[in-house]
Structures are given as structure tokens and as C-alpha cells.
Amino acid sequence: MKIILVGAAGDIGQAAYQELAARHDVVTVGRTTGEHHVDVTDIDAVKALYRAVRPFDAVVSCAGDASFAPLDAFDQDTFMVGLRQKVMGQVNLVLAGLDIIADGGSFTLTSGVLDRDPIRMGTNAATANGALAGFVKSAAIEMPRALRVNVVSPGMLDVSAPRYREWFRGHKPVLSHDVGLAYAKCVEGALTGQVVVVE
Ligand SMILES: NC(=O)c1ccc[n+]([C@@H]2O[C@H](COP(=O)([O-])OP(=O)(O)OC[C@H]3O[C@@H](n4cnc5c(N)ncnc54)[C@H](OP(=O)(O)O)[C@@H]3O)[C@@H](O)[C@H]2O)c1
């Protein structure tokens, strides 16, 4: 398969890359890293990426910023970061790809643990994660041409613990290898409309 992997240089992206690149042609994408540079919040740039890379069988997104702040410190602008980046950036990848991805292709997005196991300052990311779960569940029933869509929801990765553990006290890090397997299950399996939890 030819797979477009957005956010390939990140911690989650690397986990997905290690698993998928062993068997597939993986095209790496990032804002400033990878073979193609695209900001996924710009749907026209996403469409241009797809036209440049076509034909392709799968899109995997491991990208999406959110704001981290105490609830009473958020305002509309800071809260919109997660909605614009993590939600709409990934939704754009699906909407722009519906008529260009190969028949039977798949979209795999990334959310995270915070909507089921919240931490302080995590409300923006938790909200984005919940939105993505709703998106894939609903979008799956309307996908044309046997296309599929899922979201992987990992806990804090082992490799990310040095960056995040101060905020995730008591959370058990998940193995990057197991996170990679979740992306393989979504891309190479038959699931659709699912939140694939990795804990
Ligand atoms: N790491 C964890 O433990 C963990 C656990 C659960 C969920 N998550 C979620 O998984 C996602 C990725 O996390 P991460 O830790 O792997 O992040 P990361 O290490 O910071 O990497 C993010 C990657 O996404 C790319 N990217 C970000 N925004 C983009 C945009 N608008 N357009 C195109 N590419 C973009 C970045 O590219 P450039 O570097 O080129 O900008 C980078 O390659 C986040 O939504 C995070 O909340 C992470």
C-alpha cells in the first residue's frame, strides 16, 4: 500500500512509521519535516498534497496541537487551537480525501487518553479527542466506495514520558510498539468508525 503519514517525525508518527514502513510505501508529511510540507489546517494545501502524491491507499494522521492551560485561563482564541489544529486539521484530511483516495482506502486519525482519563489543564485536548470520536463514528456510516475511518487513542507514550510525565503523574506509559500496532490494525484490518484505545 501507499500510505500518507502526517506527523511522521513526531513521537506517535515514529511509532506508526516503524510499524507501517516495514511493509508499505510510506510518504512522510509534516509542517516543516518529512518529504512533503503541509499545514493540515489549510484544506487547499491538503488537496494539493493529495494531487501530488496520488494514487494512495491510506492516510494516517499523527498530528494535532492543543492548548494546555487551567480551565479559567482559557479564552476563545486559546481554546480554538485544539479545535482548529487537532479537530479540523484531521477532519480536513478526510474531507479532502474522500474523492481522491483509492477505493477501499482508509483514514486513521489520532486522539488520546484525555477524554476518558482527564488531567489538569487538559480540557482543550480532551474536547478535541471527544469530537474526533464522534466524527469517525458518524462519518463511517456515510463513507463512499468502501472507505473506512478510525481514530487511535493512545495513553502517554513511553518515548514521550520525559516531555509529559510531570502532567501525567500516575499514568502508565504505553509502549510505542503497541501504538504502532494500532495503526496497522486500522490501516490493514477491516475496522471502521472505531476508537482504537491503546493503554
Ligand atoms: N505523545 C504522546 O504521548 C501522545 C499520547 C496520546 C495522544 N497524543 C496526540 O498525538 C498527536 C501527536 O503527538 P506527538 O507527541 O507525536 O507530537 P509531536 O512529537 O509534537 O509531533 C507532531 C507531528 O505532527 C506534525 N504536525 C503538527 N501540526 C501539524 C499541522 N498543522 N500540519 C502538518 N503537520 C503537523 C509535526 O510536524 P512538524 O514537526 O514538521 O511541525 C510533527 O511531525 C497530538 O495530537 C497529541 O495530542 C500524543
Alpha-carbon distance between the two ends: 27 Å
The spatial strand order of the largest sheet comes to 3-2-1-4-5-6-7
How many distinct folded domains?
Answer: 1
Given the helix and strand composition, which structural class is it? alpha/beta
| Poorly predicted residue ranges | none
Amount of helix:
25-40%
Radius of gyration, whole Å: 16 Å
Tell me the fraction of residues in β-strands, as a range: 15-25%
Shape: globular
Biggest sheet layout: 7 strands, parallel
What is the mean predicted local confidence, pLDDT?
98
The beta-strand count equals: 7
Which helices and strands, and how do they pair?
Elements: E1 2-6, H1 11-20, E2 25-30, E3 36-37, H2 43-53, E4 58-61, H3 76-95, E5 106-110, H4 123-140, E6 148-154, H5 161-164, H6 176-188, E7 195-198
Parallel strand pairs: 1-2, 1-4, 2-3, 4-5, 5-6, 6-7
Helix pairs in contact: 1-6, 3-4
Tell me briefly what this model is:
The protein is an alpha/beta fold and 199 residues long. Helices cover 38% and strands 17% of the residues. It has a single domain, classed as NAD(P)-binding Rossmann-like Domain (Rossmann fold, 3-Layer(aba) Sandwich).
